[in-house]
Amino acid sequence: MWRQVAGEVRWSFTPPALWLEGVGANVLLSGLFLLISPLTLHKHGWVVLVGIYFATFVLADVTTTNVLGVDADRTRLSLATGVPVQRILIIKNLALLIIVGLPTLLATAVLTATTSTHPMQRTGISVTDVALPILAWLGVGNLVSALLAVPPRALGQRWAARRDLPSTVPWLLHLVLPYGLYYFVAPIDGEQRAILGHHLGRSMSGAARGAIHLGIGVTVWAAGTALAVAVVRRRGLRMW
């Protein structure tokens, strides 16, 4: 499988590099918005806040929610040759983790270790706090990809077919949906959701909270992936 993951990473950097276009655009947008509207200071530290902000904003893109459609030809070929859809999703998720998730987690660990007064204690906690939205986004993205897989087409072709509503509406929806989901899970003012509740979160140790956050992230990813597989098995992979 790791050979296939390496091939997926290489494909991501091969022109036209459709995945990286979305990632790059969101990195730029997230930086610009951070300058325009600074984030609210998070009670667990600015490193965690910035890490969560960039992880969720960068992944709030069709890069994550259209993993089965952005390279539709390769996906169809894999399915036609008998590759299970769950394997395709896992390979693409691991590639995204390497390209986006791993650099974000490494940056979080380094910044925490160099700025915290208790680096050994805080680093692991900060990393798990940031890992939660990354894993959750991948799980949600897998489900959305199975429901709304949209193959890439030139803007000129989309414009020429703009009156074809069965094609145009899903295309527009798949563009705006990631940002709508982002606003729901992480409001633009930067104030993150207190998943465990403020009182419960304060009464728990950092290690316990980090373990629970990591467990929630893995659970959301597993649930989203399982639902995506069920959708494809039930109706096939429908390209819009």
UniProtKB/TrEMBL annotation:
It comes from the Bacteria. The keyword Glycoprotein does not apply. Keywords: Membrane, Transmembrane, Transmembrane helix. The chain crosses the membrane at residues 18-40, 46-68, 89-110, 130-150, 171-190, 210-232. This is ABC transporter permease. It comes from Nocardia tengchongensis. The lineage of its organism: Bacteria, Bacillati, Actinomycetota, Actinomycetes, Mycobacteriales.
